[in-house]
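dumping this here before i forget
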Amino acid sequence: MILGVNPSMVQRTKKKPKLNWRQVVGLIGLCAIFAAILWPVTTGQRIASPKSARLSNAKQVALGVIMYANDYDGFLPDMQKVVAFQSELVPYMKNETLFQDPISKRSFVPNAVLSGINESNVVKPDAAVLLYSPLNGVDGTRAVAFADGHAKTMEENEFVRLMALSGTELNPARKASSN
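structure:
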């Protein structure tokens, strides 16, 4: 007994374990691996979000054109000028930001070949470009909406080939009736 204190009565303080340098390096390495795994996922979502918004906007404008045509006996709106095109479709759109490509911040470009014709005159509506985004995105693709209402992203070379083939030819039997 030291100074009258019973050793069994003394509370012993436990030392907290400290990390040694190997454990610290291991934790830093583990954090680096975790960050390397998550980094592509989070950056991919930032790119995918405007890309999917661009495609959604193109599809909604295409569906607005189809609703317009249903109200006007199948005739498509004036697509010669972007401003006239947009003003005719405003009643069919939820808001006017849908006319804009969220990546390029520019308005979608309507296909002037289809301006004012009857939609029944389009031979292949699933191949007829109705409108498209004005510029490629960072991934080299652009949004394209078709006369049947579907939309998809295309690489530039595929888009150029499609526009050259131009699935917008008119049915010869109906060409005279649209004039």
